[in-house]
Amino acid sequence: MSDFYSLTIDKISQLTPNSVAVSFAIPKELEKVFAFEAGQYITIKHKLEGEEVRRAYSISSSPQDKHLTIGIKKVPEGRFSVYANTSLKEGNQLLVMPPEGRFVYKSSDLPKKICAFAAGSGITPIMSIARNVMESHPENIFVLVYGNQNKTETMFRNEILQLAEDYKNRFSVQFVYSKAREEDSLFGRIDTSVVNFILKNKFKEIAFNTFYLCGPEAMINLTSETLKANGVPDDSIYFELFTASENKDSETLTLEGKTRVEVVLDDEVHSFIMDKKTSVLDAVLNEDIDAPYSCQGGVCSTCIARITEGEAKMDKNQILTDSEIEEGFILTCQAHPVSDTLKVDYDDV
Ligand code: FES
């Protein structure tokens, strides 16, 4: 079951003309439930004009902070993001699912040299990771490369400059602006030339251990390819998509016919028949089964379940690894049955 808790907003601050930081007070009795790792996200459930919307937002605060803060950027036609930027007030309560997500920084006893590439609101989980990296070891080093249109649209700009001030020799930032030329910033987008400049020129003396990438898919693909071309191993690159492409990995939408499905959730078994064209998650929700989900777009990982019998194919997947897929894991929001029977277990993940 997807558990939601009512949390009170105790602070809203304007980050840019189109984005806000929303901080929740976590009551003592929920501190354990809402403990998180740097890089994770929460899901908010809210009724707007009588219709339930769920949205996932990355946490920007450090796990050591007293508050849990998220960044919400207004997106065109984004119902909840527009509401949050225009109508949400301090003191309001929202229904929030506890933190989850696999894009995390794990602190270590050994000093780490981390480089992060973020674009737009993709900065949000990187803020949490950067803060945690700085706090968790006195010799950790963090380089942030951050792309935006201009200074005004740069979320968390003041907080980033403050980190650079607080951790003078350990935290560095390279701003990249696509629509403004500024002193000490690069002009353009985060692309091959920017990545090469960071690795081979500006920070060439730093042997980075790990890279975190967060932003639109095209930026992540290009950055990751350029890192690999520079000899960075695959397993040193972590990424989180903030917008997914429309590309589908399979041809499952052409599927015809029906499948008998058995779903295990919270130790209860539900059986029903579904169209192969429908996603497993949509079919489960149509049956009024309270399965966990958030983005419904293959971007978060809230809807993961395991296939225990039968076969399903995903429209797209950039989250699960090949070995996880072999073990039977699926993103139910992207999965369509291809066998005539399918057993799916939400508890065994
Ligand atoms: S609900 Fe986000 S990946 Fe399925």
Question: What would you say this structure looks like, in words?
Answer:
The chain is of the alpha/beta class. The chain folds into three domains: 5-100, Elongation Factor Tu (Ef-tu), domain 3 (Beta Barrel); 113-243, Nucleotide-binding domain of ferredoxin-NADP reductase (FNR) module (Rossmann fold), CATH 3.40.50; 252-345, Beta-grasp domain (Ubiquitin-like (UB roll)). It contains seven helices and 19 strands. Strands 4-3-6-1-2-5 form a six-stranded antiparallel beta sheet, with helices on one face. A six-stranded parallel beta sheet has the order 10-9-8-7-11-12, with helices on both faces. A hairpin with a 2-residue loop joins strand 13 (258-265) and strand 14 (268-275). The relative contact order is 0.12. The model has no long low-confidence stretch (mean pLDDT 93). Bound molecules: FE2/S2 (inorganic) cluster. FE2/S2 (inorganic) cluster is lined by residues 293-296, 298-303, 331, 333.
